[in-house]
Amino acid sequence: MAGEASAAPAPAALHPWWHGYLTRLVVTDVVAVGVAVFGAYVVRFDPAGGATVDGRLSPSYLLVSVLIMWLWVFALVAGRTQDRRLVGSGPEEYQRVASVTWRVFAAIAILAYLLRMEIGRGYLAIAFPLGLVLLLVGRFVWRQWLHRAWARGDGWKRILVVGHRGKVEMLLADLARRPGAGYRAVGVCLPAGEAADGRVGDVPVIGAVEQAAAMARELRVDAVAVVGSDKVTTHTVRQLGWDLEGSGIDLALAMSLTDVAGPRVIMQPVSGLPLVYVDEPRFTGPKYLLKSVVDWVSALLITAVLSPLLLAIAVTVKMSSAGPVLYRQSRVGVNGKAFQMLKFRSMVVGAHERLAEVLAAEGVEEVGLFYKPKNDPRVTRVGRVLRRYSLDELPQLLNVLRGEMSLVGPRPQIDAEVAQYDRHAGRRLLVKPGMTGLWQISGRNDVSPEEGIRMDVYYVENWSLFGDAIILARTARVLLSGEGAR
Q: Do the beta carbons of residue 339 and residue 331 sit within 8 Å?
């Protein structure tokens, strides 16, 4: 098989969607960096004045700006921030852009020190944050464009899945749950002894493992994904890699361990054996102190900006129906500690006393995880509008300022819901509850309890500040559309 592939190699797999997307990324990156660098130059210096750097070496700031611009662009390319396997989904793309950017400016500071050049701090203080923001905004805009293309069925990364039928089914199910990743399985290759025809789910079985490379070339897929199996040995995988050489087709190995983010995974080759270490999740320390500081400062700024809206909602709630403006309810927070969560009142007074009546009307015997009545007669007319756009949740900014909640985290639940937790769901309580979370940007009330728990536990164990920023940005979009609200 390997000999045949070497003797008559198929043409390299094409990635037409990627060529266009890469061009857009590169052009946008160059424009963002250019605007940042020369914007800082124009703001800090007179373009016609020929300003020069102070120190032993004194080039003009115009020359320095040109050099910084192309150093920055080169670093973005060399740092593989445009890698096709990286862009389009997840926070890693944004994290790599930020990492490359701060490394560039750290290198500039070190070089300036060694050459005894005193580059203006104000100039760098404008170029660095402005460029980073423009780069991240550009990546976000093109990511939305790509997601819309995927929604139309364009630009999907076609993959061939290789491995034992049971594990192939699990991988296909994971891909189906994550359409935002942009992968579409077009075929399956099973080990010898398993049926070499038929289908696995909706995907056709097109051959045996030994035929995978030939079928990948014939179908012109973007990647071959291999899932573990006793019959798919390391020799088989190595030979598959040889057969794919020169084709432009990626070889991906799918780990059996799921819901673990990249920063917790460490690859350590030992004598040719690729050992994968998984760091245990941590729930205390400097990382969480930074999260608390960012939460508090952000909540204070958001409260100040939204104060006119908060006042208007308070007046509307007070005038619309009898009762207090704010509703306080006991919720379970970090480590099982109860606290009083605040909301704008969206129901009639005494609504909690009618819960059994509402459950009976919907044929429900007890409160389940994430349960909310579909047609709740206790909700006021104003309350329906507030709930649709989650405006009733805004007073929880005060809970964040009091240190009881975070901006992002698992949504806090009542005692009756927490009483139903198993060990898996109980991990939601290892961090502060949040005003928004993964479930809220993934369908809100349309998400099943099982999927909601899975997403919350994934967040608890793998959160990052970049991930929080992405969730907050997507939350704003979801709330404006009212998507999944009830």
A: yes
Residue 276 forms part of a structural domain: no
pTM of the entire predicted model: 0.68
Instruction: Provide the 10 A C-beta neighbour count for residue 147.
Output: 15
CB atoms within 10 A of CB 184: 17
Q: How far lies 84's CA from each of 87, 304, 329, in Å?
A: 6, 41, 47
Asked if residue 173 and residue 114 are part of one domain, the reply reads: no
Q: In this structure, are 83 and 182 located in the same domain?
A: no
* Encoded tokens for 387: 């709930």
Residue with tokens 């573990």: 228
Per the domain annotation, does 321 fall within a domain?
Answer: yes
- Cα 467 to Cα 139: distance, rounded to the nearest angstrom: 15
Q: How many helices (H) and strands (E) does the chain have?
A: 16, 14
Phi-psi category of residue 449: left, alpha or beta, with phi > 0 → left and psi -120 to 50 → alpha: alpha
Query: Which domain range does residue 74 map to?
Result: 16-151
Pair (435, 373) in one structural domain: yes
**Residue 106: CB atoms within 10 Å:** 10
Predicted confidence pLDDT, tens digits, the chain (486 residues) = 334 433 434 444 445 667 788 888 999 999 999 999 999 998 888 776 678 878 777 888 888 889 999 999 999 999 988 887 777 777 788 889 999 999 999 999 998 888 888 888 888 999 999 999 999 999 989 988 888 888 777 778 889 999 888 888 888 888 887 776 778 888 998 887 776 668 888 889 888 888 889 999 888 888 898 887 666 777 788 888 888 888 888 888 877 666 666 666 666 665 555 666 666 777 788 888 999 999 999 999 999 999 999 999 999 999 988 889 999 999 999 999 999 999 999 888 877 766 667 666 666 666 666 666 667 778 888 988 998 888 999 999 999 999 999 999 999 998 888 988 888 889 999 999 999 988 878 766 667 778 888 889 888 888 888 888 888 888 887 777 656 555
Q: Are 351 and 464 contained in the same domain?
A: yes
Instruction: Please compute Rg for the chain using Cα positions.
Output: 27
Last residue of a domain, one of 123, 151, 179: 151
Q: What is the number of domains present in the chain?
A: 3
117 and 175 housed in the same domain: no
Neighbouring CB atoms inside 10 A of 234's CB total 10
Residues 104 and 243 occupy one common structural domain: no
| 145 and 162 belong to one structural domain | no
